[in-house]
Amino acid sequence: MEPSLTGLRVLREIAERGSFTAAAAGLGYTQSAVSRQVAALERAAGVKLFDRRPGGVALTAPGLTLLRHAVVALEALAAAERELKGAAPERSVVRLGTFASAGALILPRTLAVLRRTQPGIRVTTREATTPALVRALRARTVDLAVLSVRPPYRPLDDQTPRLECETLLETELLLAVPADSALGSRATADLEELADQEWIASTSNPAEPMMGVWPGLPGRPRITHTARDWLTKLHLVAAGCGITTVPPGLADAVPTGVRLVEVRGGPAERRRVVLARLPGPNPPAFAQVVQVLRREAARRPD
Q1: What pLDDT, in 10s, does the model give residues 60-106?
Q2: Can you name the residues that pair with 166 across neighbouring β-strands?
Q3: 294 touches 215 (CB < 8 A)
């Protein structure tokens, strides 16, 4: 078996991005070039590497095996290139992925502690959706991922080996409303009275549900503004442009003019913040980062 380096890079990119089209865009290739690389790689391996699914592809069991070795080979090649260029050895690097609102509080506190207490560890971060971060874990382009999951708490994907997950904290969803509105004058709101409200939500796709509209809302929500960034949503709320949902962890980031209220009249909307990683032995630096993440997730904001 003699796969090309380009083929291995394409394999890793598809595994991370979930489709040939997205991989082509990430690599700057045409989609036909990516397809040719995959075909050549499958011929060299003598096995099928991808299952085609609606909206994308997933690695087969042989594909996951090849990916594991491809990542080792590509990282070894990158290390050799750095050494040949005379670059200084890097500190212990931990690549951490997070969902958006985790970056508002847990991430800055964790990085501040690590910079102060573990100067030998360099943490790099990237923000993405939970499905994208699960793929990045499989592709080994992130080492740890802080994810948001909602009931029912199923496995994050159907691939093997199963990702190891631990719950960092469990929270209940809240509603952000203009402080000077009728809803803002109370500590709670009834689900029924939210049906006619104007909502500020993120865009959605089959892999990632819409965020910002209360789950189980009766009728079709009136979405007047869409924004992916949490701070943008909250400032739109402060400006009286609508209401949106927020996790309690964003309480300290709420701008003036916004009030957080609880919603009654339906089941509690619980969310878990979990830390996910691939099984197996990890470098000591991982344990240090995980320890700080646990502590900062459990600590109430000052």
Answers
A1: 999 999 998 998 899 889 888 888 888 666 668 899 999 877 777 78
A2: 275
A3: no
Query: What is the predicted pLDDT for the residue at 301?
Result: 53
- With contact defined as beta carbons under 8 Å apart, do 144 and 114 qualify? no
At residue 185's C-alpha, the angle toward residues 184 and 188, to 5°, is: 75
Contacts with 38 (C-beta within 8 Å, 6 or more apart), sequence order: 7, 10, 11, 14, 20, 49, 50
Contacts of 207 (CB under 8 A, 6+ apart): 18, 55, 129, 131
The token pair that represents 239 in the structure block: 């400006």
Q: In sequence order, which residues have a C-beta less than 8 Å from that of residue 277 and are 6 or more positions away?
A: 137, 143, 144, 145, 163, 164, 286
For the CA atoms of 66, 72, 75, 77, the dihedral, rounded to the nearest 10 degrees, stands at: -90
Three-class SS state of 195: coil
pLDDT, one tens digit per residue, over 142-164 is 999 999 888 888 899 988 889 99
In terms of DSSP bridges, do strands 121-127 and 92-98 run parallel, antiparallel, or are they unpaired? parallel
